[in-house]
Design goal:
Leucine-rich repeat, LRR (right-handed beta-alpha superhelix); 13-stranded parallel beta sheet; single chain; mainly beta; 13 strands; 2 domains
């Protein structure tokens, strides 16, 4: 029987034996080892769909990776490389790409060719820019660029009409583009740990939003449009500079939890008490 899967996780490996790499392989996982390079034989596997080599010591991804055009899942997370080859753009069948917890300084623009990409993890790197071409990844459903050094995000994020979850926390964002409010299917938005002093006035246009996490920013007010978030379940505004909320806050019919701790509230307003009477947990 042909071998289609190879599992070598946590084996203490320093090299990946090329003799194990048969042409029939569809799945390889060699996570949490001490690999510093990958063998040339890997790049000629004609059926490989899943490659996971996260949490190793790989300092460079060679351009030959672009030959793995059958890949649908590529997990390179937790390695100390700083750049990716342009040939990554040849991986046109990739649906899940994990580049988290590396040392990336930039992302190659050729990644815009990954038109089947649905899940894109780029958290905990050294990225200073969220490139505008991200907005061309039309099938993206989950995008994570947390724990980087971003100061702005592009308007083109508003073109990600299939996006369900957006994570941008622990960066240096001072503002959000209004275009983010054009994401028709967005359900979860995580913005904590930035230096935002305001949210877009059109925030209420996110009709399907369920979770909005804005804790530990510098917000001084919340726009009236917050009351239009008819599906919002959880609103976290801890650690900001708020003294009041707009009366429209009472229009949130599904809100289950509102966290206002570590702001400048001295008592619960009538609006907050009205939310409590309806069953919402309110913390100040």
């Amino acid at each position: 029987m042909l071998t289609t899967s190879l599992s070598l996780d946590r084996q203490g490996l320093t090299t990946l034996d090329p003799h194990l790499l048969s042409a029939s392989l569809e799945r390889i996982s060699a996570r949490e080892n001490q690999l510093t390079t990958l063998p040339d034989a890997l790049w000629s596997l004609p059926n490989l769909k899943f490659l996971s080599v996260g949490s190793n010591q790989i300092h460079e991804i060679p351009p030959q990776i672009g030959q793995l055009t059958t890949l649908t899942h590529l997990l390179l997370d937790g390695n100390p490389f700083t750049h990716l080859p342009d040939s990554m753009g040849q991986l046109v069948n990739v649906q899940i790409l994990d580049l988290g917890h590396c040392r990336l300084l930039t992302l190659p623009a050729t990644l815009t060719q990954l038109q089947r990409l649905e899940f894109f993890y780029a958290s905990d790197n050294q990225l200073t820019e969220c490139p505008a071409w991200i907005g061309e990844l039309a099938h993206l459903r989950y995008f994570n660029m947390t724990d980087n050094r971003l100061k702005v995000v592009p308007d083109t994020l508003g073109n990600l009409h299939q996006l369900i979850e957006l994570r941008l926390y622990n960066n240096q964002l001072t503002r959000l583009p209004d275009a983010i409010c054009q994401l028709p299917h967005l359900r979860e938005l995580y913005l904590q740990g930035n230096i935002l002093d305001a949210l877009p006035d059109a925030i209420g246009d996110l009709a399907y939003l369920r979770i909005l996490d804005c804790r530990n920013n510098r917000l001084t007010h919340i726009p009236d449009g917050i009351g239009d978030l008819a599906n919002l379940l959880y609103l976290d505004l801890r650690g900001n500079r708020l003294t009041h909320l707009p009366p429209t806050i009472t229009r949130l019919p599904k809100l289950e939890k509102l966290d206002l701790r570590w702001n400048q509230f001295t008592q619960k307003s009538p609006e907050l008490r009205q939310l409590e009477e309806r069953g919402c947990l309110v913390y100040i």
